[in-house]
Amino acid sequence: MKKGLLKAVALGAAAVMSVAAIAGCAGGNKAENNADVANDNAGNKIIMGTNAAFQPFEFTTTSGIVGEFDGIDVAIAKQIADDMGMELEIADMEFDGLIAAVSTGKVDFVAAGMTANDERRKNVDFSDTYFTAAQVMVVAADNTDITKAEDLKNNKKVGVVLGYTGDSIVTEDLEIPEDKITRANRGLDLVQEVKNGKLDAVVIDSATGKALAEKNGLKVVEDSEAFETEEYAIAVKKGNTELLDKINTTLAEMISSGKMDELAIQYNE
Ligand code: GLN
How far apart are CA 179 and CA 214, in angstroms? Predict the structure, then answer.
């Protein structure tokens, strides 16, 4: 990937929406489906499901945008909530459980650097795309034998985060044997294993891989031929078009105003 590791999407024709639509939503109206747990307990709250171990999109810090939570997705979600006149609450959980949480109504939407793909589309609806990314390989700084994805097949020990797109790419596309794959819930834990020599590479999303590599004295190896572009989008419960429209309106506004690019720069430092 030559365009840099973190890229906000350019404004597409489909993303153009009127600001008047935002004004129309304000006033704390509840989402449609009252049977949802999230909405029953909500009052004036809207609940974002995420996995806050995915810097720069969501992570915890001493004082974040919402409590301890900070990151690009948190900033976007806060804007969505503000535009709806609602308070944002964040439910931090394992990435693997996010699709179930939104489809059963435990959270109103998922903002988690989540790649929109057909597999997930069976269970949730996705917003317009707001960022593009690709998988990368995080390896030791002095590693010279992993220069492309194919090299992982060479008896390498590979780490992936459970349920991430990186997991399915390593497992299904590259067909790395199961006994060479280590799965964990957090990228950070896997990166530690690269650091101490127990793993050869971690396959993870570009911006997060870059952040983890920099912090841990490791390096990132890209392979734009093997790793396709992935598009991040926000997930809602299937059929919740009312909320999806509001989310898309806010995203379009943030993209056209340049706010999304600003967030990429701000959080990519
Ligand atoms: N983009 C990857 C996916 O959707 C990883 C997302 C994440 O870890 N939060 O699987």
Answer: 28
Position 252 scores a pLDDT of 98
Residue found by looking up tokens 């090299």 in the block: 151
Other C-beta atoms lying within 10 Å of the C-beta of residue 143: 18
Q: What are the CA-CA distances from residue 101 to residues 37, 45, 77, 85, 240 (Å)?
A: 10, 16, 17, 23, 14
Asked whether the predicted pLDDT for residue 23 surpasses 70, the reply is no
Q: Mean pLDDT across the chain, nearest whole number?
A: 88
Query: Distance (Å, rounded) from C-alpha 117 to C-alpha 177?
Result: 24
Q: What is the pTM of this model?
A: 0.83
Least confident range of 25-29, 50-54, 186-190 = 25-29
Distance of CA 102 to the CA centre of its chain: 15
230 lines ligand 1 (CB under 6 A): yes
Q: Produce one character per residue of 197-223: b if its CB has 16 or more CB atoms within 10 Å, e if not.
A: eebbbbbbbbbbbbbbbeebebbbbbb
Do residues 113 and 205 make contact, with C-beta atoms less than 8 angstroms apart? yes
Of 74, 164, 212, the one to substitute when testing ligand 1's pocket (max ligand atoms within 8 A of C-beta) is: 164
Ligand 1 proximity of 51 Cβ (cutoff 6 Å)? yes
Are the C-beta atoms of residues 139 and 254 closer than 8 Å to each other?
no
Q: Which amino acid is at 51?
A: N
Our CA angle for 69, 230, 117, nearest 5°, is 95
Q: Compute, in angstroms, the gap from residue 87 CA to the centroid of ligand 1.
A: 25
